[in-house]
Design a protein that fits this description.
Cytidine Deaminase, domain 2; 20% strand; Rossmann fold; 13 strands; 5-stranded parallel β-sheet; 6-stranded mixed β-sheet; 267 residues
């Protein structure tokens, strides 16, 4: 694969993928969401087009003009914009909304994949360029979870897995087998920060993938921002799921967590 489309939202995930793809000699044509995607993508892609939320038809036209047959869709979208900005939807966006029976993330992702496929563009999994960033079972930090924290991890994992299966969020924060916060529309970092004062620190954060995770869509990711949120919440431990979670920079994240006295374990 020498030429690929990239549909980029917010966060570090699109940047990580673009850097790895560039290193592998893949030419990237990027459609980036205004006010969401990072300007750093300008230097990591061959061409970049900045579109407003809802300009789906224009994105398809760009890919067709660039002879793009395969694409990846990475990064988040601030769903609060649905209610705050009321973005105008073009014909393509309206078609996706018509395909979707509800507004859950996975439903919308699948509807977008169907719409793109109808126009000759197949969505791929980004994992093809990020195999070294997949979390493998074990402890990533010098500090390991205590016995009590392992109890919270097991308790939280069951909740997080069901939460992800309901397509509400991927993260739950617990302490002493009490769920302090669950991730919803506000996102992982906000859910972590909200839980810190509720548990008076030393909270345990658990992040899980969907029960049947489609690796093309919304893969769980942790990055530097995750560590900063953990520090702000005075969290004691982070648990993530093996083989289904991406780590943006393992060495940096391990170093930052070690400095903060936070344990990170892959289960």
């Amino acid at each position: 694969m020498k030429r690929l489309g990239l549909i980029a939202g917010c966060g570090d995930f699109p940047l990580l993928f673009a850097a790895q793809a560039k290193a592998k000699g893949i030419s990237l044509i990027c459609v980036a969401l205004k006010d969401e995607a990072s300007p750093k993508l300008e230097t990591l892609t061959d061409k970049i087009y900045w579109l407003s939320f809802g300009e789906v038809k224009k994105a398809v036209e760009i890919f067709k003009s660039e002879n793009i047959k395969k694409a990846v869709m990475l990064g988040g979208i601030n769903k609060r914009r649905f209610f705050k900005d009321r973005p105008e939807a073009d014909e393509g966006a309206k078609a996706i909304l018509n395909f979707a029976k509800d507004r859950k993330d996975l439903t919308l992702f699948k509807a977008a994949a169907l719409f793109l496929r109808l126009h000759g563009i197949t969505l791929q999994s980004a994992v093809m360029c990020l195999k070294d960033n997949i979390a493998r079972k074990g402890c990533l930090t010098e500090k390991k979870p205590t016995a009590a924290q392992w109890e919270d991890i097991r308790f939280g994992y069951k909740i997080a897995k069901r939460l992800a299966g309901l397509d509400i969020g991927q993260t739950v924060v617990v302490k002493d087998k009490v769920a302090l916060s669950i991730e919803a529309i506000e996102g992982t970092d906000a859910a972590i920060r909200r839980a810190g004062p509720l548990g008076n620190g030393d909270v345990v954060v658990v992040k899980a993938a969907r029960p049947r995770q489609d690796m093309r869509f919304d893969i769980p990711v942790i990055g530097v921002n995750t560590i900063e949120s953990l520090k702000e919440a005075r969290a004691a431990c982070l648990a993530i799921e093996k083989n289904k979670t991406l780590i943006t920079d393992k060495q940096q994240i391990s170093r930052l967590a070690n400095q903060a006295g936070i344990s990170i374990v892959v289960i």
